[in-house]
Amino acid sequence: MCPHAHTPAPAPDSPRLPETIVHEERAQLDFSQSMSYGDYLHLDEVLNAQHPLSPAHDEMLFIVQHQTSELWMKLMLHELTAATRCVAAEQLPDAFKMLARVSRIMEQLVSAWTVLSTMTPPEYTAMRPYLASSSGFQSAQYRCIEFALGNKNPAMLKPHAHRADLLAQVEAAWRAPSLYDEALRLLARRGLPVPADHVERDWTLPYQASDEVQAAWLQVYRDPRQHWDLYQLGEKLTDIEDAFRLWRFRHVTTVERVIGFKRGTGGTGGVSYLRKMLDVVLFPEIWTLRTDL
Ligand code: HEM
Ligand SMILES: N[C@@H](CC(=O)c1ccccc1NC=O)C(=O)O
Question: pTM, whole model, 2 decimals?
């Protein structure tokens, strides 16, 4: 006799056992012959890439925080480079979607600082000697993002000289026109008075702010209806720089609360260096035009 023959049937709305639900839903449970979640996402590689060097409990937090940041940066670069190409090809609706995503990723990175700020100075000090001379200053993806956003500085190529593959990527980002360079070229093609030396130039040189470029943006912002897509582009650039400034600020504040004014493992003055980075302006005329509106 079936052992469950006398078990009363459950009422239709009574809670069911989790195993029953899985069976009733007919979820696939055998992955010996087909691709699983972990296979698709290569989780063996990703989740076995955490190798703490110290006995400190907090090193796992430090590693995961940086690895997740690098993953978000990977997506950000993917979106930024594609958006820059779309601006060059005058496919602005596509570019806007990607640039909105870049801002959201940046916001994600800003919020992530709250996790790291649970690490106190004694906790970080326990693991810091194990970092030796490694530092976020040497992040190739971060440098590509700075270059793609126009903050060009050839000195920042040097930490990658020992890795030909990474150097080639960072160098390509240094040589390419930035998102802002492509935005100005677009303004020029639309007949706005962008000076010739901002339409064609040596893109490896740092961007120089110009009154004429500000005047061109002013035409856009004084008549948004007439230049609706350029106006939207200007505001997308504003969103990105706004979020990036918040990231820089949260970085320097987290660093100050964790190591005070100690020198950085990357050799810079630490907080003094990061504070200088707060003065970087990526899209200067986008900000200065507002005074004249
Ligand atoms: C306790 C946490 C952290 C401390 C104490 C810290 C400290 C520092 C210091 C002192 C520098 C200056 C370079 C140097 O001399 O080392 C720096 C640069 C940098 N850090 Fe961090 N950092 C922390 C967390 C992070 C995180 C979570 C990220 C995210 C990826 C990050 C990314 C960077 C980048 C990209 C730079 C280069 C910035 C630039 O050149 O403008 N840092 N950090
Ligand atoms: N520059 C930091 C070390 C540091 O933060 C770091 C070291 C290795 C890998 C990532 C790091 N994060 C950001 O700079 C320090 O001076 O303590």
Answer: 0.94
